[in-house]
Amino acid sequence: MVFTVENGKLTVAPKNDPLHEQERQRLEGFMARLRRIEGTGDPSIDADVLMGMTRDR
Fold first, then answer.
1. What's this model's pTM, rounded to 2 decimal places?
2. What domain of life does the native source organism fall in (predicted)?
């Protein structure tokens, strides 16, 4: 059994559920992409400046 809590909901699924496996792989891919870009940002950019650069595009 796999227990997952999301948005206050407890989900119970069989351990070898194909949908659970797809979601796990999707999450692993996302986490891998985050690890690749970790530390690549410019720490000298202020958060307000960054928001101004990305807002209303």
1. 0.52
2. Bacteria
